[in-house]
User: What shape does this take?
Amino acid sequence: MTGFDRRGLLKGGAAASALALAAPALLRSAAAQGKPIRIGFPVPLTGAFGAEANDQVRAAQIAIKEFNEAGGFEGRQAELLVRDDKLNPGEAATRTLELIEKDQVNFLVGGLSAAVTLSINNVARERGVIYNSITQSDAINEAKDFGRTTFHEALNPHMTAGAVGRHVFPKFGKRVAFLSADYAYGHEMMRGFKRAGEASGIQVVADIRHPIGASDYSAFLPRIAALKPDVLCLCNFGRDQVVSIQQATEFGLKRTTKLVAPVLLFTSRKAGGEAFDGVIGGTSYYWRLEDSVPSAKAFNDKFRAAYNGAVPSDYGALGYAGVRSVLEAVKAAKSIETDKVVTAMEGLKADFYKGPQSFRKCDHQSIQSVLVIESKSKDMKTPDDVFTIVGTEGPDEKFLRSCDELGHKA
Assistant: This one.
């Protein structure tokens, strides 16, 4: 005998054949495991909200970096695919479709306009892709625009204007004027203020609308001043907020009227300077939360380390939270399959950067705190110390519109 084992050879040959047959499947599996988890991120990098959008991108990259440095998911790293929606619903729909069909993203996060976020959601919902919106919108929670893959990481106007109104109207008076950007954001914020003001018996003395990107408010301010309102609610955003507050201050309105913004932007305050003094507004995040919230300190420190000591803005923080919520849900679901990740997000209870948050099941709205802040230019510990937190409404479903009101049936 030479040691030649026919039976062993047959067994070995069979195993080799089986391995050869299995090889394509194994290669596909290995390729799938190594393929990045792609998150599409459409935001208006150019246009009136560019400063806020660029900060959203910077903070979102922190969430991507955290996930990857922790090992990703089953050997897969995350990747952020940023696209400029140019603050245009049509452009947003086109970019979103490209992200889904050409770039084959697994998830979508983004948006910085109430109208644009609905456009992104429309495309994502039709194609069954999870979209976590990071801009203020009431409509996205309503049954007509909502889909099972729709999530809303940001506050909504009902929550934000409600918190600010409940703080402001009892303190500063019932005669209220509105100067609002004439699109969904402005309309929804005004509605939120009016509803919050019902308990205080406010009287609306003016309801003036202006186009997005207005540079001259001189036609509106004399009309408002002549009515002598106790409170002027400026329901606008980005550069519109900066210009309208600067011009209202220059016109002398602060002598008789309290200026209020439903969302008082960190980026706008930095651009607008002392003109913002005394203006009260709401926000989902202010970096000085680090004084009392450990997760805020941890997030701020990572942002500072990545961006030369800068602190994150309010909408920047939403970019971080929107991406992190999706990636945490992937880990909780142990899958990137849409249905499993939706279920994981519905059950997510987290403290990523500002305290406790969770998603309400009927409309996937994030239940979270709302901060009421007042702008200052004195007693600042650093140049970024531009607000004082003067009130907080904790994370409570009672501050949301009911599921039934939104059209969601039990």
Remarks:
- The chain is about 45% helix and 20% strand.
- The chain has a mean pLDDT of 91.
- The longest helix spans residues 6-34.
